[in-house]
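Ticket closed. Logging final result for AraC family transcriptional regulator.
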Amino acid sequence: MQFLVLLNFAAAIQGLFLTYIIAHNRLKDTKSVVLGLLTFVLSLSLLGGIYGMSGFYKSFPHFTNVADPLFLLYGPLLFIYIFALTQNRLPRNYLLHGLPFLIYIISFIPLYMKSGEEKIEWAEYIFLNDHVPLKGLLMQLLRVVHISVYIVFSLLTVKKYQKKIKDNFSDIEKISLNQAKNILYFFLFALVVACISFVFGYLFSYSFSLSNNIIGLVIGITIFALAYSTWNKKDIRTMVSSKLVDNTEDISDNPLLEESKTKGRSVFVLNQEQLEDYKTRLETAIEKEKVFIENELSLAELSRRINIQAYQLSELISRLYNESFFDFVNRHRVEEIKLRIEDPASDSFSLLGIAMDCGFNSKSSFNTAFKKFAGITPSEYRKRQLVEQEV
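Final structure:
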């Protein structure tokens, strides 16, 4: 048991050190401030579990239950961090997310007002009980629900942003939020462990304090994962903000557009004549100029090339091809690669070399796109072409 305490203490120190590094280097950045607060809260929560299991509550009884309410900040801070990561700003009325935390603290004011001896008695009932009390189990399950709701909203935020990225860029590998998604999934895993730990603590004979420290160990691992996944990563929002187009911008004042037509959640603003005209411009840029081989081609850049607004190009691709900008460009890249592979003159070139020459920036993005649009891997496609040439 003491070994578990030492592990959690080491993780807490790691979290506090990460908080210091963030505060020392990145406090001008909104999302880094939120990230620093999140790691600080996680670290203090770990120290709370150590406080109970190590017996320090006897020497410092007035710290009893001080760290416990911090659990209600996990979800809000995680969501606010993801929101700031994708929007480069804080959500509206973000302070309201702290209300459950505040209400929880107020509800425990009677405990905080007790004497040291009374707090020790209360702590021993909680920490040294040979099983998790039913009241404690229900409280923990409510916390799990609270955090889970925020994780779901965070995942939806990431999904929405990644869709927006696909609508604006042909290469999203450098601006992917997969690290953020992995952290959210890891938090979900921690919640599952928490549920199992407390249910087992209720059904079998081990203490609330042990359950807390088992969860603390998972939180400690989460701190390390958080540090690994976020530290020294490029500022995603800054990388894309200058070229990111909001396709829901107000276009109602444009006299050249016909009355908007709504289909589901999409607002169509191009009339048939414009569709035909813009389609011709787009096909010229794709088929004759082969603009798709430019590896950092964006929606904004292509719209400038064919002299239309970015939101109009986005609608054009969506309506005519039912694709995101990302898929539209990469499909043409794959078709170009297939043509080059079919050419015997390209046999001396590597597949990756051909892919890079056709606009892809990495082997992984090339393989993923090729298999999606061709149905097989690039190497399988080349082998098939070599067999057909021999025949």
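The radius of gyration is 28 Å. No further action required.
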